[in-house]
Amino acid sequence: MISWTYLNKRSAAAKAIRDYDSMKFIVEHTDEDIRTAYHDLTSLGSPSFDGLPSAKNPQAAEEHVAAGIDEIDTMRERYRQAVEYMKWFQPAWNELDDEERYVLTAFFGSRYGDGAAESVGRHLNVERSTAYRKKDHAIDHLATLLYGRL
Questions:
Q1: CB-side exposure of 5: number of CA atoms within 13 Å?
Q2: With a threshold of 0.90, does the pTM exceed it?
Q3: Phi-psi region of 62 (alpha: psi -120 to 50; beta: other; left: phi over 0)
């Protein structure tokens, strides 16, 4: 496909790194979230027998169940996308060496910041310019693994 040629693969690889922790969290926690949502579906309020209307909306229980089912469907779709992402991203990530993963996590991971070059420099005992070169090399390597030739 011609549009694939014009994709900024380095930028896309950096975004994929930023999404990694979120996708991993979704894969690890969705089962429990769905169990909780199912439990909430079956936890409807008990009726009151004091002669007063129990709700302003007589369909409140049905709407509660429908909203719960929609929420579960949304969680399942989010989980499906996260699993698809992990199947695509994890093999490429595993192919990198420890130093490349450290550098990319420092520069693009969920806790990245302005001091990434200094942090990498201290950790690897290199100058700031070398840290940036290592970042460039590592992101190019990851982009090649994810998307093919740059």
A1: 2
A2: no
A3: alpha
For 83, counting Cβ atoms within 10 Å of its Cβ (0-12 exposed, 13-18 middle, 19+ buried), the class is middle
Judge contact between 73 and 82, C-beta under 8 A. no
Q: What are the pLDDT digits (tens) for 89-146?
A: 999 999 999 999 999 999 988 665 678 888 899 999 999 899 999 999 999 999 999 9
**In the block, which residue shows the tokens 């429990």?**
32
SS3 of 91-106: HHHHHCCHHHHHHHHH
Contact partners, residue 20, CB within 8 Å, separation at least 6 = 89, 93, 109, 110
How big is the chain, counted in residues? 150
